[in-house]
């Protein structure tokens, strides 16, 4: 039994709402993607949302469990809109696909397919075997964008990499020896903190730590508990023990990516301060840290998204090795007259990447690009 409002347009609207809902827990569900479920049924001639669920903080319970709990008996005969194929494996609870069958849900509409080998097709198969009508792939591209980090870790064994840079009106990202120079205003800065909150890790080169001594935490009101892991590319372990990221390493995880033999006493002092030392492979040509291997290591540690925030050398390395999946440019009004040139400018970025979003942040402009891939119509 399905209800009369169900048209392709209605399905898309419900799925778009589910995808938006799923973003609330983005970056806070551990190694799990943040999934959302809406349970909708016809009551008194109207479509009514009888259950809503988002993957819980930390990753469990899953979205379907939460939505079914809210709906109770009203789940019977309802249509479930789920942003990811419901799971087929036993975790702390039985598979979500079985739970949907048990609850008497009539129809399930899903967006993204789940590449997790424990699920991959089995979730849909359980639903069909249980007599449920299944429509898969509704707004798949949009859902895939919303959980791109999870999908990247599952299918490419590396995190999704976003490179974010603030560029002055005359094309500089900072000035050597001048510390942190404000290039963008308070709205852009708040947006950066929101991006940090949604990322699993934030990565900079040691030059940025020495130059700017940033905290690299999320400092938005109400979001203080969301700071991502901090990763510093520091091949020769030059980071000062007085750096803010070292002094706060006990509270916010800090990883130092190093190369080769490291002075044992420094190693020990930094370890005691709470830093994790990641011994990296060297790139055979440049002798620098091999970034693809580092990214693999980070994915194996369960990190799905990495926000690269600088400086120029680090940004260039990621760009040159084609490791940037998303590029975010904050274009400020301030002119610096001299400084470190931006490793990529909007025109070059537009030729290389696909423009997905433009926004005004007060007097600043934000442009977001994505690696070129299949076309995607709706913005997340
Ligand atoms: C769902 N609904 O809300 C999410 C799903 O460690 P576990 O047992 O939680 O399993 C993790 C896997 O569960 C993950 O790789 C993905 O396949 C699925 N995530 N599935 O039905 C959800 N977050
Ligand atoms: Zn599940």
From TrEMBL:
Catalytic function, reaction form: 2,5-diamino-6-hydroxy-4-(5-phosphoribosylamino)-pyrimidine + H2O + H(+) = 5-amino-6-(5-phospho-D-ribosylamino)uracil + NH4(+); 5-amino-6-(5-phospho-D-ribitylamino)uracil + NADP(+) = 5-amino-6-(5-phospho-D-ribosylamino)uracil + NADPH + H(+)
Cofactor note: Binds 1 zinc ion.
Pathway assignment: Cofactor biosynthesis; riboflavin biosynthesis; 5-amino-6-(D-ribitylamino)uracil from GTP: step 2/4; Cofactor biosynthesis; riboflavin biosynthesis; 5-amino-6-(D-ribitylamino)uracil from GTP: step 3/4
Record EC number: 3.5.4.26, 1.1.1.193
UniProt binding sites for NADP(+): 166, 208, 212, 311-317
Binding sites annotated in the UniProt record for Zn(2+): 62, 87, 96
InterPro entries according to UniProt: APOBEC/CMP_deaminase_Zn-bd, CMP_dCMP_dom, Cytidine_deaminase-like, DHFR-like_dom_sf, Eubact_RibD, RibDG_C, Riboflavin_Biosynth_HTPR
Family: In the C-terminal section; belongs to the HTP reductase family.
Keywords attached to this entry: Hydrolase, Metal-binding, Multifunctional enzyme, NADP, Oxidoreductase, Riboflavin biosynthesis, Zinc
PROSITE patterns: CYT_DCMP_DEAMINASES_1 (PS00903), CYT_DCMP_DEAMINASES_2 (PS51747)
GO biological process, one term: riboflavin biosynthetic process
An example Gene Ontology molecular-function term: diaminohydroxyphosphoribosylaminopyrimidine deaminase activity
This protein's record includes keyword Hydrolase: yes
Needed co-factor(s): Zn(2+)
CDD domains: Riboflavin_deaminase-reductase
UniProt-listed Gene3D superfamilies: Cytidine Deaminase, domain 2, Dihydrofolate Reductase, subunit A
Domain CMP/dCMP-type deaminase: 9-135
Binding residue positions for substrate: 196, 216, 219, 309
Active site: 64 (proton donor)
Function: Converts 2,5-diamino-6-(ribosylamino)-4(3h)-pyrimidinone 5'-phosphate into 5-amino-6-(ribosylamino)-2,4(1h,3h)-pyrimidinedione 5'-phosphate.
Name of this chain's protein: Riboflavin biosynthesis protein RibD
């Amino acid at each position: 039994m399905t209800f009369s409002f169900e048209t392709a347009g209605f399905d898309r609207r419900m799925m778009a709402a589910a995808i938006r809902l799923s973003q609330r827990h983005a970056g806070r569900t551990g190694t799990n993607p943040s999934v959302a479920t809406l349970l909708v049924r016809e009551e008194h001639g109207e479509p009514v949302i009888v259950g809503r669920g988002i993957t819980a903080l930390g990753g469990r319970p899953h979205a379907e469990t939460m939505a079914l709990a809210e709906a109770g008996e009203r789940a019977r005969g309802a249509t479930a809109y789920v942003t990811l194929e419901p799971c087929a494996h036993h975790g702390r609870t039985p598979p979500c696909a079985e739970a949907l069958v048990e609850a008497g849900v009539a129809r399930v509409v899903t967006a993204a397919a789940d590449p997790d080998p424990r699920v991959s097709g089995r979730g849909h198969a359980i639903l069909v075997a249980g007599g449920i009508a299944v429509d898969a792939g509704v707004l798949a591209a949009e859902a895939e964008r919303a959980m791109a980090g999870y999908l990247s870790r599952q299918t490419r064994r590396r995190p999704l990499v976003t490179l974010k840079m603030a560029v002055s009106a005359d094309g500089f990202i900072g000035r050597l020896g001048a510390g942190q120079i404000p290039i963008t205003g308070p709205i852009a800065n708040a947006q950066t903190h929101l991006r940090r909150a949604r990322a699993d890790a934030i990565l900079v080169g040691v030059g940025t730590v020495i130059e700017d001594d940033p905290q690299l935490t999320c400092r938005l009101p109400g979001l203080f508990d969301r700071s991502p892991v901090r990763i510093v590319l520091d091949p020769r372990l030059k980071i000062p023990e007085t750096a803010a990221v070292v002094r706060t390493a006990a509270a916010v995880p800090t990883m130092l990516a190093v190369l080769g033999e490291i002075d044992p006493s420094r190693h020990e002092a930094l370890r005691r301060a709470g830093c994790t030392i990641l011994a990296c492979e060297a790139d055979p040509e440049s002798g620098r840290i091999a970034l693809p291997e580092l990214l693999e290591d980070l994915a194996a540690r369960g990190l799905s998204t990495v926000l690269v925030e600088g400086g120029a050398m680090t940004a260039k390395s990621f760009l040159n090795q084609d490791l940037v999946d998303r590029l975010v440019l904050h274009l400020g009004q301030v002119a610096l007259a001299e400084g470190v040139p931006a490793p990529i400018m909007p025109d070059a970025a537009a030729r290389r990447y696909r423009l997905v979003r433009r926004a005004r942040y007060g007097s600043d402009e934000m442009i977001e690009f994505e690696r070129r891939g299949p076309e995607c119509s709706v913005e997340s």
